[in-house]
Design goal:
The protein has 126 residues and is an alpha/beta fold. It is 37% helix and 18% strand. The relative contact order is 0.15.
């Protein structure tokens, strides 16, 4: 299960009335769904203030830019109830995951609001 599958098919149906927002380097959203680039954090913040609930899926290619912008907008992490961070078995991606969790903690996100999701399973392993 990938990040988009997790966000769109597991989380979104469980939050009544929530909107799905994709934050990607290129606006590669699908028709009828909001999509922003990582450098459009101000627009994302404004939009989140205008709706009741959303599932925001942040692409791996934009997470660094978005974290930098979130740091510039003091307290903006408070607009998010939970941060779900996926990780895969590859050591490089696990290092990136750890860095993301550390960055979130430095922004002031409490451990209770962070969730680590183990992603990608080897075929035949059960």
């Amino acid at each position: 299960m990938g990040k988009t599958t997790l966000a769109r098919h597991l989380l979104l149906p469980r939050i009544p009335g929530a909107e799905y927002i994709a934050v990607e380097t290129n606006n590669a959203g699908t028709e009828g769904q909001a999509s922003l680039r990582g450098d459009q954090f101000a627009m994302l913040q404004e939009y989140l203030l205008s709706i009741d609930s959303a599932v925001v899926a942040i692409g791996a290619s934009t997470v660094d830019d978005l974290m930098d912008l979130m740091a510039q907008y003091g307290g903006s992490h408070e607009d998010f109830d939970c941060f779900i961070v996926p990780t895969v078995p590859d050591p490089k991606q696990q290092q990136d995951t750890i860095a993301t969790l550390v960055d979130l903690a430095r922004l002031g996100v409490s451990p209770e609001r962070m969730r680590l999701v183990f992603n990608t399973m080897e075929l035949g392993v059960m």
